[in-house]
Amino acid sequence: MNNLKYNLIEKCLQILNERADNTKNAMEELQQSANEYGLPKDRYDSFRAQVLRKRDLFAEQYQKSLEEIELIKKIDPEKISEKVEFGSLVITNKQNLFISISLGKMELENAQFYAISAQVPIFKAIQNKKAGDKFEFNGNKFEILELL
Q: Does some domain include residue 79?
């Protein structure tokens, strides 16, 4: 079992679950606020409409978090990638990349990892590369030391 990859997946799930909980709580608080306020007092009263718009924005964020959780759960921590693809853990001479969803920088086991999505430009530069391959991104030269 690849403990590092498993731990990265767990860390991502922890971050996403916290994000989902926070957005759900905000959404519920806004709904409660709108309910307590009641119907608009007159046709120029937009407070309730603003609160409901904010609630809807949080609902979209909540839905996105749930979708990202499902996406992360599809990554097999046992799979060793032959080439850089979704679910790969890419160890380079300069940074460690976890190809999953965009969560940014994470600390794990005294090392830094960057959770990136397959839509970011650096992924396009390393897609389908193998361990030992070199690539250049934004003027920086990288070498893929290991793929997990």
A: no
**Using an 8 Å Cβ cutoff, are 64 and 100 in contact?**
no
Q: Are residues 68 and 12 in the same domain?
A: yes
Let me know whether 61 and 108 are in one domain: no
The amino acid present at 23, given as its one-letter code, is T
108 beta partners: 111
The verdict on 133 and 103 lying in the same domain is: yes
The structural domain count of the chain equals 2
Tens-level pLDDT at each residue, the chain (148 residues): 468 899 999 999 999 999 999 999 999 999 898 888 877 677 666 787 888 899 999 999 999 999 999 999 999 988 888 899 999 999 999 999 999 999 999 998 888 999 999 899 999 989 999 999 999 898 899 999 999 8
